[in-house]
Each structure stands twice: as structure tokens, then as C-alpha cells.
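Whiteboard transcription, Tuesday session. T.W. wrote the C-alpha cells on the left side:
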């Protein structure tokens, strides 16, 4: 194998380039947002509605308890969880017209997988996900978990809630 020694020597003579690269890598990691913890105020975010292609902001859902469920169509744990979400959460609060204070509980499914739209649609239909947002870049998911799926979060979007902080 032949090497261009002029390029090799120019790189070897400039270790500062490596230091800059390493410094950039570490600074990029430190710029990642911290994970939310219980009680944190969730910053507004905007994702795309899978069905309409329109942007949806978290603040568009104000006035509701928002149950977020991130999923990947190929994930067996997502499948197991989704099997229980419809009857155990969605239908439960729908039958009661909301929580004990009469506040609507809205299920929002968030798709994590950019590829194979047909399989994602099959998963969405199989588990009756009514409102699905796209988070394929994990823009929001990475604020709630540092990897993996499914991810679940509950956000109180009710100002002046009788029982919990917004």
C-alpha cells in the first residue's frame, strides 16, 4: 500500500489539530441538554404530526395531562408496553372523562424510527395510537432518557392545577 508521505508528515507535524478535534468532541458532549427529572419544567418543543405533517408544539397541548410514549416499531419492549397502554391508560381515562379532577389525559405516541414507514404505520394501527408525533432525531426523547425505548413521561399541562405544579 502506498502512502502520500507529504500529507502524512503534515498531519504528524501539527498535533494541535488533534487537540482541537478532541476539545470539540468534549465540548459537543457537554452541550447536550441535561435529562429532565421529576418536577422539572419541560421546555416547549415542536415536532411533526405524523398524520398531517404539521408542526405541533408542546404548548399546543396546554390544559391537558400529557402522557408521552416513545416507541420503535421493531422494539419488543415497546410492543409489550403498547399492548397495555390502550386499555390500561387511554381507555381508563377516556371512560372517566379525564383524571379525578376532570382534566383530560391525552396520550401522545412518539415515533423514534425514521425508516420503514409501513412497519411504523402497522405498529401505530395495531396499538390504536391516535396522535403520533415524529421524534426520529430523538430531539425530545434525549431529554427524558439517555437511550433505549420505550420511554414514558407525564407532563402536567394544566395551569393552576388543583393537585400538582404545571
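and on the right, the sequence the group agreed on:
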Amino acid at each position: 500500500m502506498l502512502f502520500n508521505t507529504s500529507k502524512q508528515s503534515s498531519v504528524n507535524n501539527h498535533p494541535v489539530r488533534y487537540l482541537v478535534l478532541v476539545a470539540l468532541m468534549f465540548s459537543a458532549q457537554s452541550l447536550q441538554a441535561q435529562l429532565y427529572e421529576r418536577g422539572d419544567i419541560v421546555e416547549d418543543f415542536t415536532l411533526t404530526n405524523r398524520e398531517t405533517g404539521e408542526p405541533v408544539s408542546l404548548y399546543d397541548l396546554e390544559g391537558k395531562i400529557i402522557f408521552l410514549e416513545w416507541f420503535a416499531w421493531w422494539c419488543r419492549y415497546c410492543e409489550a408496553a403498547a399492548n397495555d397502554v390502550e386499555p390500561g391508560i387511554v381507555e381508563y381515562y377516556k371512560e372517566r372523562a379525564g383524571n379525578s379532577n376532570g382534566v383530560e389525559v391525552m396520550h401522545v405516541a412518539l415515533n423514534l424510527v425514521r425508516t420503514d414507514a409501513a412497519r411504523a404505520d402497522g405498529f401505530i394501527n395495531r396499538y390504536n395510537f391516535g396522535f403520533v408525533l415524529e421524534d426520529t432525531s430523538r430531539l425530545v426523547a434525549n431529554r427524558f432518557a439517555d437511550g433505549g425505548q420505550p420511554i414514558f413521561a407525564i407532563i402536567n399541562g394544566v395551569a393552576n392545577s388543583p393537585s400538582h405544579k404545571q
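Someone added at the bottom: Confidence is low (pLDDT under 50) at residues 1-12, 14-31.
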